[in-house]
Every structure is written in C-alpha cells, then in structure tokens.
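stuck on this one:
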Amino acid sequence: MQVALSPEENSTLRAGFDAQSEAYEAFLRGSLASGIGSISPESSSQAIAAFDRAIALDPNFAEAHARKARAQLLGHWLAVGPRSLREDARGSLARGLAARARQPGTLLAQAYEYYLGDLDYTRADATLQQILARVPDHAEALEGSGYVARRDGRFDDAFRPSGAL
C-alpha cells in the first residue's frame, strides 16, 4: 500500500506519538530481546533496559513491570546476568502487581516467580490455572504449565497441561 501524506497529515500523525506510544514501543523492544531463543547476557541487559525505558515513560505500565520481572527471572535462572537479578525481579513483580494485580501478564510473572525463583511448583501451577480459568487458550500460560509439570515430574501433564484439551 502506498500512501502519500500531506505535510499537515504527517504532522498530525507525529503529534499523536506520545509518551505512552513510546513506552509501548520500548516494551515491544524488550519483549523481542527477552525471548528465550536468543537469551544471552547482552540480550538480557538490552531487554531489561528497554523495559526500564517503558517504565520511565509510563510508571504504571503493569505489563512492562511484569515482563521485566520475567526477563530478570530468566536471566537469574540461566545465569546470564548479575546475581542480583533474583531480588531485582521481586521488586519488578511487586510494582507490576501494585499496578494491576489480577491482569494475566502480572499473574504470569508471579507464576514464573514461584517457578524459577522459589521452585514452588504447586503455587506456580495454581497461579497458571487462574490465568487459564479466565483465558483457556492463553499460550504463555499453557507453555508455563507444561514447564512446571515437567519440572515437577508430572510428565504426562507436561504435554497436556491440566485444563487443556
């Protein structure tokens, strides 16, 4: 699609790009950098920095706090960052929960806190099931449920998380 914008239209579109838009863009950059397929010390620190940028622009961006906590927990779990990541993740999660406690994204971060941080598979699974009760096809919760079941030795459930068909 080719669109030609007038200078006025271009100006209007650029004026509409506000701090929340910039925060969301930083959040997306952090989400891309924090993917497990490419985790490294560099990508972990890039992801955390991007989430920090999103949070600086919108301090109440609960999903940015939650994703930052997950990135920190994964960095802690895979030992690709400083030892402080575990405690840093607790702080990020607390801020995300304070902003929007029952949102699936913050619940997912809480489940990963139980799973990767506390090794409490029962609480991790219960939290994931809360998400799946509300959003039965939540891909990340289904994935996390499989990880938790596998780590807990429930191998049949790892392939078919409870609640899934």
